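Lab meeting, action items carried over

1. Structure of the two-component assembly. Owner: GW. Status: complete.
Input record:
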Amino acid sequence: MTSTAILETRNIVKQYAQHRALDGVSLTVPRGCIFGLLGPNGAGKTSLIRIINQITAPDEGEVFLGGDPLRPEHIGRIGYLPEERGLYKKMKVGEQLLYLAQLKGLSEKQAMDKLKIWFTKFDIKPWWNKAVEDLSKGMQQKIQFVATVLHEPDLIILDEPFSGFDPINANLIKDEILELRRNGSTIIFSTHRMESVEELCDYIALINRSHKILDGPKKAIKEQFKTHTYRAEFQGELTDLPPVFTVVDSQPLDEGFTRVDIRIPPDASVNDLIRNLLDRVAIRSFGENIPSMNDIFIKAVNGQ
Amino acid sequence: MKTIFLIMRREYLVRVKKKSFIVMTLLTPILMSALWLLPAYLATRKTDLKRVQVVDDTKRFASVFQSTEELKFESSNQTIDEAKRKFAKSGYDVLTHVPANIIDDPKGLKIYAEKNVSLGVVRDIENVVENEIENQKLISAGIDRKVLENTKVNVSARTYNLSEEGEKDSSSGAATILGYVLAGLIYFTIFLYGAQVMRGVLEEKTNRIVEVIISSVKPFQLMAGKILGVALVGLTQFMLWILLTIGLSTGLSAVIGSDALKERVEQSAVRSASPGAATPPGMSVKGEQAKAKAANDANMMAKVQSALSTVNWPLLLTCFFIYFVGGYLLYSALFAAVGAAVDNETDSQQFMFPITIPLILGFIIAQTVVLNPDGAVAFWFSMIPLTSPIVMLVRIPFGVPIWEIALSVALLIGGFIGIAWVAARIYRVGILMYGKKPTYAELAKWVFYKA
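Predicted assembly:
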């Protein structure tokens, strides 16, 4: 397991004065994936991320990076984009990025070479000598993203990376995230936007009230939360359906169409359902109701 | 170490490149040199000769008014009404009227002019009349002026340091001033640069950059780098101030004309030391007194100079450097902790208060320490690290045993390590805390949080 896991946390406990922020949280983040770290506000995500970044230390438990217990030198292998982020306002963009990269352990020359590539890629060369405060918020976010990934970390932790981006720039960043994964980085992605989880994540962990309540590959979790309901739209009257099929919901649509949600037992055949429908109505569409991440999130958190 | 250096360099460069830094650094020496060169320069300019018409009803004073470089007295036989009427066309600048009953009514002296008369001119004329009235009164009372002069004595004690090397001339006056100046300098710089550290921490916190940074470096490194960077800014500024002031002053005096200027500076020093010295001659007792006083002042200056030369400068300057750096480091660690604990400068006031108390206390105690530099108060407050940078420096010009200095410095270093440890622990928690202003109890808890 450790050979393929870039990051592993074991039984992390973090206690603040009266509040236990994390209570026995164990996670395994496989190498080369996009890992969605989800949870309601105040669940303990930020505490966990700060422990991984060695900003704070856990009261109990251990963290392993690439199989080794976390050490101060690992800082250079992690890139972190906090939710609360900012830059030195008066400092020039280029100087600032050079500085941040050097803090991560790059030499000035290395940092310069890599920055040139990014400035070309994002087409932001004219910004080099501008003070950060003269840039728009979206521009600043771009700079911040570059600062996070410039030292080519193995593990990139992005907390709400899309906040403050317009759809065009959000797409740009999304493409970058995907490319980073292609190049072998692992991305831990913490967000409340379920549509981007849906789109990007391979693995998911859900933290609620200091506990991990759910984790695994996104597909498996979806499978786990499957309700075995199917949605059909048709014209005609649906009557005398065999009792194994339960109509959960039925809604009339325009032009005599009806939409129904039908649940079948886990061992029943979908083909059977379709055959039964074909006999009775004129089908316009048919498909399985796959739970959205949104549904899963709400269900898992409320189900606790 | 490399990280601390990187942070230090950034903190240093950012501040040194600021316009306000450059302006402050350039402006201060200009002001400083102007402060002592300008009066001297003005003094070198020839003042216009003023013609004074004297209408003397007593006929006794005309001869005592003697012309000087600045005032040309001419007595007139006109009546005062006549003189007043013709004054505008007479070409005189000032008209003085000594009434007949001046001896009984000294307030009767009148001075007329078209524009306002300068205080100096008024004083000069008053002095002449005053002296003459005094003279007249002495004569009518039958007192010989010489007898009176002989009764004037001037007591001036000289103080000596009795040490193993024997007797040494000392001047507690000079030591007092020197101690004050150095202590004041430390007091001022701790506030100036300590506040800069605090503002720097607050800036990182309010800009929300701090979490980005401490995912790369340890909070302690960030704090240390900032404190050291600002310290270097302070040292740079001081060096530039000293160099530029010296450079400017010498440069300017060369331009203005050195010899004349030097003479004038000395003259004006004497003049300002004793206003009477500049009055025109021809006055008796007062004049002699003034001359004696001027001589005394000059003597005093020489004494101060000789006292300053007895000060152990290498020791004093070394101590100044040590206490400046030590005091700054200690207080700036506290300032950094305050900056970390709050979200904005307004909230910082509450926590600034307990930090400024010992500083101000040290400065107040310094005033009693000058009176009794070897007393118990002086000793203990020059040992406590929070007050020692100020109090000890006040004591050193008076002479302090080496073991006391050594102990005090050791305590300062120890105190710095202890306070920096506490400050770093508050800092490390505080920089990630937003929202509510913490209480002192909470701050105390932060210190014991696990890292």
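2. GW to write a short summary for the group page. Key points so far: The CA atoms of residues 155 and 256 of chain A lie 54 Å apart. Chain A has a mean pLDDT of 88.
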